[in-house]
Every structure is written in C-alpha cells, then in structure tokens.
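Hi D.,

Good news: the full-assembly prediction came through. Inputs first.
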Amino acid sequence: MMRYVGFAVLLKIMLADDMWGIYLAGFAAAALFGNVTATSGATLILVAFIGAAIAIYDYNANVKIKELKGNGGASDGI
Amino acid sequence: MASNDELVYVDQTPAPALDKATLNKMVWRSMNLQASFNYERMQAAGWLWSILPGLEKIHTNKDDLATSMKHNLEFFNTHPFLVTFVMGIVLSMEQNKADINSIRAVRVAAMGPLGGIGDALFWFTLVPITAGITANMAISGSAVGPILYFIITFGVQMLLRYWLMYWSYAMGTGAIEVLTKNAREFTHAAAMLGVFVVGALTCNYGATKLGMKIPNGTKIDATTKETVANYIDLQALLDGILPALIPLALTLMCYALIKKKQWSPTKCIVLLLVIGIVGCAFGIWSGTYTALVSVPWH
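Then the structure:
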C-alpha cells in the first residue's frame, strides 16, 4: 500500500495539468497488457514502447513548432 | 531552499567528466541497491547511496548537491542487475546540469521497463536455470556445483553492471548536446513518458484488493451437482467497473492530499496504515487473516 505515496510524490512533481490523459492512458495500457496471458510478462516493456512513441512524437512536434516560430518563441514546457 | 520543488541547479556550468575510479566505485556500490528497501520508495535509498560518489564529484555547490540528493531519493524500483544503465544516463544528465524535471522523468521512464526485462531475463531464466543445473551437480556430490553457481550469477551481473554503466554514461553524454538545445521540449516529452509509466506502475504494482465476499444463499455447483454456499464477490464487481480501481483511487487520494492539502508524505503513510489496519480489523481487505471483528463477509 505504501508505494501509492511514492507514486503520489512523483505525480505531484511531474504531472502537469495537460497530462491527466497520459497518466490514465498508461494505467489503461498496463491494465490491458497485464491481464492478457500472452503479454502479461512483458507488460512494462510494451507500455514503455507506447509511452516512447507518444513522447518522441511530442518532442518532434514541439521542436518543429519551435523552429517555425524562430528562436524567439518558447514553447510551453512544464 | 528546503523545498523539493527546485527545478534548475544554481551552478549551471557542466561538470568535468567522471573518472574511471568513480564510475567503478559506483558499480560496486550498486550492489547495495536493495539495502534499506521499503514499501514507500522501494530502492530509493540504495539508489542514492550508489550514485552518491558521482553526485559529490559533479555538484561542488552544496545547495545543488542537496537538491540533487533530494530528488534522487524519490520512488525508485528496477532490476538490480540492470540498474547501472539508469545510473549512467542520470549521471550524464546531472553532469550537464540538465533540468531537474527531465532527470527525474528519464529516471522514472527507464526504471519500469528495465525491471520487466530484468525479471524475465534473470529472475525467471538465468538464475533458475543456473541454480537447477548446479544444484543437481551439488546433489550428486560435486563441490564445483555451488562454486559454479556463484561464478555464473555473480560474474554475469558484474559484467553487465560494468558494461551498462560505461555504455549508458557515454551514450547519455553523447546525446545530451541535442537535448540541451531543445531542453524544454525534451523535458516535456520526458515528463509525458514518465507520467505514462507511473500510470502503468499504479496498475501493475498496485495489489490492494477487497476480500469481502457477502453470503448470498446457496447455489448448485455445475460440476459436482452439490449445493454450495453462494457469495457476492465485491472485488469481482469492482473489476467489472475498472481493474485496479482501488490502487488508482488510493494513489489519487494521496496525490490530492499532497498537492491540494499540502500533506507531507509521512502523514499519507500514517493515513494508509490506518486504512490498512482498520480495513483488516473489519475484514475488508483480501488476504488470509482473521478479522478482529467477526463480520459475515470475511
């Protein structure tokens, strides 16, 4: 039970308001992979693949936006 | 100072690269990863102990060292054989004084999948197979058995620990230039990955279940054709609404208390203890124990 406090501390710092969907998506992905016999052993690896896809896409999109805006624009980070 | 909300280091000058002696020292220290293991932050204390020599070399500013030690004491759990991979990357980011949120996010994003890979490769494959073979040798009277077991398991993990440390440290140092150029974007993306993984961990590590089975008449067993007691299993009902609903709810409760009510983590731990103890006294949580109060559902 105590690990929930650890998660909560991490979320307090990392979870920006625009990321609630991402948190729930991670939860959903783990619920899905974790309960299918064929994938349950590799749940966290598979979840990380999806997470990496989202993160890389987000990174590339934001870098492109920044380059379009020129050096003056600062994208809204955390 | 005195808050763990520092986002950037005071001293922004990148530190000189860590020397081999320090890296080797940290490889050996990583053996203590699971020391002081606890259920709130798991390997956090062992993790900080392992990378401390590197942090001390990197952060010459005392306040920065304090900030760094603080955020490296947060929840951490990965496979002990593979931990040096995370250490290398985190150290390369610390060395370049990267944004603290990105360091944190990278650490969180790396630990979960490595834990999964490590369990599959080592706990379920290497160790059982080695133990199976060498234990058989020992049973048939060979003294080489236990020695061989030690040499294989310890040798494999030491090779991995060394190699991963140097490889990921070099990789992190190489990649850092591109990432610092787009630091904001990288931090945002890394935090997204981190939050995604924490969401998955909430579901994957959360094991709190209801143990309430309310007696509800009798039914005829389909195979034995005998009359058996019938129960309404509340956990099965909850799983129908959302699997791992209780871990999610408890995590969000702690989050709300910490974020909105400014509770300290210790206060949350006490609250969870009370919830656990009172719940078990009334037979609410699952497990093989006798409830203090005799209740019809446990």
